[in-house]
Amino acid sequence: MVSKSVESKREKTIRRILDAAAKIFAESGFEGARMDEIAKQAKINKAMIYYHIGDKKALYAQVLHDIIGNAAEHFINNLDENQSPEQKLKYYINALTRTMDQNPLLAPIMMREQASGGQNLPEIIAGDFALIIGMVTNILEEGAKQGVFIKTTPFIIYSLVTGGVMFYKGSYPVRSRYAVFPENVKKLGDRVSGEVSSEIEKLILKAVKK
Amino acid sequence: MVSKSVESKREKTIRRILDAAAKIFAESGFEGARMDEIAKQAKINKAMIYYHIGDKKALYAQVLHDIIGNAAEHFINNLDENQSPEQKLKYYINALTRTMDQNPLLAPIMMREQASGGQNLPEIIAGDFALIIGMVTNILEEGAKQGVFIKTTPFIIYSLVTGGVMFYKGSYPVRSRYAVFPENVKKLGDRVSGEVSSEIEKLILKAVKK
DNA sequence: AACAAGTTTAACTAAACAGTTAGTTTTACT
DNA sequence: AGTAAAACTAACTGTTTAGTTAAACTTGTT
């Protein structure tokens, strides 16, 4: 039988590996990530990755599930069905920005996954995305039915919000690296919850309200 | 002296290399791209890349300049300064979507560059982006000064539009691959100019108009 | 035709890489 | 204390990769 302390040691090693892997995959992408570098970052022997988790693909799938799967679940479970469509749409933008700030690796990993056409995206994760898209679609259709929202293509709204937030946050390293960018851009940070979220909420609601 | 026909032969080889490289870099990213695969795709000997252009980094920089630099220039030169801020903002969205459709490699390459924090982004290309951001900023500030637009953070509008368009277009392979996505999403294509552009123009203008 | 400059090729090298293995230490349980 | 399973380590292997080189071919010029 496996005792508690052995279990916790195992879990600790796995946690170190997954944290390091998420960081390296976010920085360098699947192809750019080096197993030796992940091991070094995690301060464990490289063979431990193969022992506890598996090869590079298995490790990547695990990282995706860890980061995206949990976020998606949290997202949907916390939506209050009794709120108005306006409030729900605000909730979505607010929850999205907070999730992105809480896990800064989400934006780069999602962007890379999209750029590669989802070559390494497990179907379960695609299902998580589908749930969120369905949620936003319902909010917008409910609003249109109630006559508070204009008729829109929900996926376009979803794209503007999700893509916009990812773009804003993801552009931070580039914005801050190069001196060529204008000062009004250079003074912005990488935080999207808070003021940025408020402004996006206002803009999007103004756009869709009847 | 270098004659016409030698020159055209040289140019032809370089063109083959750059076209192949753009495709492979878009599909696989900088780290994922293989010099042998680019050579095979271009139907030339791998040594020709090093002879005519240089190493992998130089090739990537050349591809970026070819795709982004030209687009950015075209963008700014075609803006009609005599138009109203509303018309200019519409022009920007319209030009962006047409550029994205004309060059399908732009979206994935830009997304990867952002995800990597611009690790391989030459400063000249960053300057091209800065010009476009400056253009959008001017349009929005001009509109606000004239009292036709509300006061906004221009870079947020820029992010919503650019990120939104890239997200919509970039998500096409994932949307069409997996059966889990709802039908209202599955029926959408990857084209962003035309109907998608019109709807984004309407939404964004509605959002920023006083 | 002879030459030189530009272009192309196939074969090569050295380094980096994912993944393995045999042997060692740690842990939990009796 | 003894033991067996689990966790770990260092050194290794075979392959893939970016980049090179020397020799051959092509083209324009005299």
Q: What does the model show?
A:
- 2 copies of one chain form a homodimer.
- The first copy, chain A, has helices at 4-32, 35-42, 46-52, 56-77, 85-102, 106-115, 123-145, 154-170, 172-177, 183-186, 195-208.
- By secondary structure, the first copy, chain A, is mainly α.
- Chain A has 2 domains: 1-54, Orthogonal Bundle (Arc Repressor Mutant, subunit A); 63-208, Tetracycline Repressor, domain 2 (Orthogonal Bundle).
- In chain A, helix 2 crosses helix 3 (46-52).
- Chain A is globular, with a radius of gyration of 20 Å.
- At the A-B interface, helix 1, helix 6, helix 7, helix 8 and helix 9 of A face helix 1, helix 6, helix 7, helix 8 and helix 9 of B.
- The structure holds a DNA duplex (30 and 30 nucleotides).
Spell out the key features of this protein.
homodimer, mainly alpha, Arc Repressor Mutant, subunit A, Tetracycline Repressor, domain 2, 11 helices, 0% strand, disordered N terminus
Write the layout of secondary structure elements.
Two copies of one chain form a homodimer.
Chain A: H1 4-32, H2 35-42, H3 46-52, H4 56-77, H5 85-102, H6 106-115, H7 123-145, H8 154-170, H9 172-177, H10 183-186, H11 195-208
The structure holds a DNA duplex (30 and 30 nucleotides).
Work out the helix count of chain A: 11
Rg of chain A, alpha carbons: 20 Å
Instruction: Give the tally of β-strands of chain A.
Output: 0
What's the CATH H-level superfamily name of the largest domain in chain A? Answer: Tetracycline Repressor, domain 2
Give the structural class of chain A: mainly alpha
The first-to-last residue Cα distance of chain A is 63 Å
- Kindly give the count of domains of chain A: 2
Unreliable segments of 5+ consecutive residues of chain A: 1-6
User: Helical content of chain A, roughly?
Assistant: over 70%
| Gross geometry of chain A | globular
Strand content of chain A: under 5%
SSE succession of chain A: HHHHHHHHHHH
- CATH top level of the largest domain in chain A? Mainly Alpha
From the coordinates shown, what is the CATH architecture of the largest domain in chain A?
Answer: Orthogonal Bundle
* Main sheet properties of chain A: none
Overall mean confidence score, pLDDT of chain A? 92
Largest interface, Cβ cutoff 8 Å: A-B, 63 and 63 residues
Oligomer: homodimer
At CATH level 3, the topology of the largest domain in chain A is: Tetracycline Repressor, domain 2
